[in-house]
Specification:
Elements lengths: L1 E4 L5 H13 L3 E6 L4 E6 L7 H5 L4 E5 L19 E4 L2 E3 L5 E5 L6 H14 L3 E3 L17 H13 L3 E5 L6 H4 L5 E4 L7 H9 L4 E4 L6 H13 L5 E5 L17 H8 L4 E3 L1 H5 L5 H10 L4 E5 L17 H14 L9
Parallel strand pairs: 7-8, 7-14, 8-9, 9-10, 10-11, 11-12, 12-13, 13-14
Antiparallel strand pairs: 1-3, 1-4, 2-3, 5-6
Bound molecules: phosphoenolpyruvate and manganese (II) ion.
Phosphoenolpyruvate binds next to loops.
């Protein structure tokens, strides 16, 4: 249930409604919008008459949310959420924010070289995995903490924010100084312990759609994080598994407008994992921006043919620079901009 308070409702009126909800056994999540305060009441259903709440002073409207996800639903924050990574990087506002970098951090030379090029091209966030969820246990598993350190240094030098994948709750504290946004990979979208642990912190989380997850399942996974009080969640469409085998995955572009309607959370596109082929990345990146994505995450490598992971889908720096120039032309057509 969502309770929209009247414009100018007093703090005492808001607190009274919160107290009544708590007395009914609800957990209350408060969202202070530009003009209205919205209270999200979640929890196990108890016998109560929602009209009792409509009559309370200062209440404008009481809405039952019929979808299984509540805090992630658009009704909870009709104006949309802007996730702030700090240093002026905001996902969900007018700017389409681009994260770029190698699939895995491999060496100092590599990460500094890629960071410099993507920063020059207009990316705001440096991506790079240090803990890699590889399909085969014999494939490169990532550099771990030393890789995160290198990534942070490179990002600081070129004024970029960072995003890197976390695979286990035990890694969160160690990673905090190195990342501005935690990535939950597709394979971990339903790792509920990890999601709950990320709900306890206040740093942004990039939640990637699972390989065969429905949009509703993605939003329910986001709900795990939100219900812990961490509202800084960015969703990511990175392709789903279908009967098609030509591309690595099938880029479900329709998920972008659908999720924008169902949820207030920003959503970005990952054309690299969605296609698995370097030559298909620019067209799908352009399409994602045209479809209304709030950002993109793109794999770029200084020497893709020698990359330790996902080289086939990694762009050469020059192709990435060219793509950014194209996105700068597309974004204004839909009222957005690219740095
Ligand atoms: C990645 O970002 O390198 C990655 C492993 O992505 P996904 O979880 O979407 O497969
Ligand atoms: Mn990858």
């Amino acid at each position: 249930m969502v309770i929209v308070m009247q414009e100018g409702a007093s703090e005492a009126q808001i607190q009274h409604v919160i107290d009544r909800l708590v007395a009914h056994g609800f957990n209350v999540h408060r969202s202070t919008g530009e003009s209205h305060t919205v209270l999200g009441a979640v929890g196990v259903h108890r016998d109560f008459d929602h009209r009792d709440f409509e009559l309370l002073d200062g209440v404008r409207e009481v809405m039952r949310i019929t979808q299984p996800f509540k805090l992630a639903s658009r009704q909870f924050r009709p104006e949309g959420t802007i996730v702030d990574l700090g240093h002026g990087v905001k996902i969900g506002g007018p700017e389409v924010v681009v994260a770029a970098g190698p699939c895995s951090v491999e060496s100092r030379e590599q990460i500094f070289c890629v960071a410099e090029c993507v920063a020059k091209a207009g990316a705001k966030i440096l991506r790079g995995g240090a803990f890699k969820p590889r399909t085969s246990p014999y494939a490169f598993q990532g550099m771990g903490e030393p890789g995160l350190k290198l990534m942070r240094e490179a990002a600081d030098q070129f004024r970029l924010s960072t995003v890197s994948e976390v695979m286990d709750p035990s890694q969160i504290q160690m990673m905090l100084p190195y990342v501005d946004m935690f990535q939950v990979g597709a394979r971990n979208m339903q790792n509920y312990y990890l999601l709950r642990a990320l709900g306890e912190i206040r740093k942004p989380v990039l939640l990637k759609r699972g390989l065969s997850a429905t949009m509703e399942e993605l939003l329910l996974s986001a709900e795990y994080i939100l219900s812990g009080g961490n509202y800084n969640v960015v969703l990511c469409e990175r392709g789903i598994r279908t009967f098609e085998t030509y591309t690595r995955n099938t880029f479900d572009l329709a998920a972008i407008p659908v999720i924008k309607k169902l949820s207030h959370l920003p959503i970005i596109g990952d054309p690299s994992h969605a296609t698995g082929r370097r030559d298909k990345v620019p067209p799908m990146a352009r399409a994602a921006v045209a479809a209304g994505a709030d950002g993109l995450i793109i794999e770029v490598h200084n020497d893709p043919d020698r990359a330790l992971s996902d080289g086939a889908q990694s762009l050469e720096p020059s192709t990435f620079t060219q793509l950014m120039a194209e996105l700068r032309i597309i974004a204004p057509a839909i009222g957005r901009r690219v740095a």
